[in-house]
Amino acid sequence: MPVLLPFLFAAAAGLCVAVQSPSNAMLARSTGSVWFASLVSFTGGLTMLVAIWALFDRTPLAAVRQAPPWAWVGGLYGVVFVAAVAYATPRLGLAVTLTVTLAAQLTMAVALDHFGLLGLRQEPVTGTRLAGLALVVAGVFLVRR
User: Fold this and answer.
1) What stretches pass through the bilayer (predicted)?
2) pLDDT score for 144
3) pTM > 0.70: yes or no
4) Angle, CA 93 vertex, CA 23 and CA 22 arms, to 5°
5) What is the DSSP secondary structure assignment for residue 84, as one 8-state letter?
6) Long-range pairs, 26-31, Cβ under 8 A, ≥24
7) What does the DSSP assignment read for 14-44?
8) pLDDT digits over 75-94, tens only?
9) Domain interval for residue 92
């Protein structure tokens, strides 16, 4: 089971993204603001994270001093993702929006892996990886059609 656990967590994350996108898009449409919808989304997430940390984790706040400076900006990427997907979903549809974001994620992931950036283990680009990436990009066009 431990070998399967990361795959289950990743699948759960994918399911959550698929449900989060239309939820945030509806909130943006209802309020008339992608930014306010994103704020509400992050406030709900922050509330849940604080509760989980307080109840189960309690890592000392001083532990963050050990993180490199670039590790502090992860939340900024989340803001871009949540706002962009809330904006794009009603205009492109959920499937197209998520295939475009997935293709972009995988393209960046292959580049980050190849160079071993951001603390990742270096995984060189191979023909197989490029073929897989090409299939995902082709999938964007197929889903769009």
Assistant:
1) 34-56, 68-88, 94-112, 124-143
2) 85
3) yes
4) 5
5) H
6) 27/86, 28/86, 28/87, 28/90, 29/90
7) HHHHHHHHHHHHHHHHHHT-HHHHHHHHHHH
8) 899 999 999 999 999 999 99
9) 5-144
